[in-house]
Design a protein that fits this description.
Elements lengths: L1 H6 L1 H23 L3 H26 L9 H12 L18
Helix pairs in contact: 2-3
Length: about 100
């Protein structure tokens, strides 16, 4: 269990921190009767969304236990850069319609 916590301590810390900020800062700020408080809570919510997205991206592309294989990603980028050779098409000869 300790090895699991050591391996995922950053992700666990981020999830707990985001939850606590949402629970005790953003949600009360959005439900308050004060407009200024609502605006600050909305800005805080947007910042939390950006922070959570960046942390998720960092985890997915990390070298330690990331979901994305970096070698496979490089191969895919090379395949996109290489354009397939275009086949030469020849025009069909025009034929006259006969009745």
């Amino acid at each position: 269990m300790i090895e699991f916590l050591k391996k995922y301590k950053t992700q666990i810390f981020n999830i707990i921190t985001i939850f606590l900020i949402l629970e005790f800062a953003v949600f009360p700020g959005l439900t308050a009767a004060n407009t200024f408080s609502n605006i600050l809570a909305g800005i805080g919510l947007l910042l939390l969304i950006v922070w959570g997205g960046l942390e998720l991206y960092r985890y997915v592309t990390s070298d330690k236990g990331g979901i994305v294989d970096k070698q496979e990603l490089k191969e895919a980028e090379q395949m996109v850069k290489e354009k397939p050779a275009k086949k030469k098409t020849t025009a069909k000869p025009k034929t006259k319609k006969t009745k």
